[in-house]
Amino acid sequence: MTIRLTRRGTLGIAASATLAKPALAAFPTQPVRIVVPWNPGGPADIVIRALVPVMAPTLGQPVVIENRAGANGAVGTQAVARASPDGHTLILANAETHAINPLIYPRLPYDAVADFRPISLIVHAPCVLLVRPGFEVNGVEEFVAKVRGQPGAFTYATWGIGSTSHLAMEALSSQAKLQMLHVPFTGGAPASTALVSGQVDAAFLNAGPAEALARDGKVKILAVGGPQRLPLLPEVPTLAERSLPVNAATWFGLLGPARMPEEAVGRVASAVVEGLKSPAVQELFLAQAVIPDARGPEAMRAFIAEDVASRTDLVRSLDIRLE
């Protein structure tokens, strides 16, 4: 697997590491805690649990993971926003915590920009469009024709209102002029179970787990919701190839509380880069269909701003407001 280190991202990491040199011995002085704001066992958990064993030697301290789920990731994210900014408490953020939540929660208990210091992007995690067993379509074109021909007759599962999976299906429905019934669940696992059991007809789910289900004949994958085909699914076309350029992907990256010292930012960012070089990490990421993309602090900040902008019009058109 090729690790993508963009020029901007590499320069950002290098700059932070340079700033860190005068005080490297000062950080970390205790174990580093990474809050994962979702339940154990999901893609976020898998990504960070693969990475932390190879980050710890670079940091010179243990790295511990704390799962704090709730409110589309807002519970754990708020806890990190309020943590001491010494760099020992970090958040594993994604599109929902820092791009979507600010658009759908009028009273979000944290400011996704002002309360955090970007450290490093880690991976992109594309979703795929899949259908339940027995749903007789072969390809995206047949799916669109069948669903469009029976407005309101079919259902789709997501891992929550305002989630990446929800916005992806709404974007597809808007572009292809489909009418489907949304059935939200509390996570990717129950959404997958509903699809496999035939309770719902379709879903956008993370590509790695979806590939395992498809390999066992439990679902059928129709398309990748990202800009390129995946090595894990080389024969599956992208939606963009079918003239439906849907953003059906999330990302994972590390942020700390605002005012986190630059030496700590640089040290953690360097640990991410070193971790992504590990053959074991690369092998697991390939199996999970996640794409490494290490970008430094300022490149990550710009990336998040672009992600917010790319989702704003869709969220506004859906008029999603959560308390």
Q: Can you walk through the features of this model?
A:
There is one protein chain. This protein is α/β, with parallel strands linked by helices. It has two domains: 190 residues, Bordetella uptake gene, domain 1 (D-Maltodextrin-Binding Protein, domain 2), CATH 3.40.190.150; 117 residues, D-Maltodextrin-Binding Protein, domain 2, CATH 3.40.190. It is built from eleven helices and eleven strands. Strands 1, 2, 3, 4, 5, 6, 7, 8, 9, 10 and 11 form an eleven-stranded mixed beta sheet that branches. Helix 2 links the parallel strand 2 and strand 3. About 6% of the residues have low confidence. Belongs to the UPF0065 (bug) family. Keywords: Signal.
Walk me through the topology.
Elements: E1 4-5, H1 7-20, E2 32-36, H2 43-59, E3 63-67, H3 74-81, E4 89-94, H4 95-104, E5 116-131, H5 140-149, E6 155-158, H6 164-176, E7 181-184, H7 188-196, E8 202-206, H8 207-215, E9 220-224, E10 249-257, H9 262-276, H10 279-287, E11 291-295, H11 297-318
Parallel strand pairs: 1-11, 2-3, 2-4, 6-7, 6-8
Antiparallel strand pairs: 4-10, 5-8, 5-9, 5-10, 5-11
Helix pairs in contact: 1-9, 1-11, 2-9, 4-11
What would the principal axes of the Cα set say about the shape?
globular
What is the helical fraction, as a range of percent?
40-55%
Reported CATH architecture of the largest domain: 3-Layer(aba) Sandwich
Q: List low-confidence stretches.
A: 5-24
Keywords: Signal
Pfam families: TctC
Family: Belongs to the UPF0065 (bug) family.
Signal peptide: 1-25
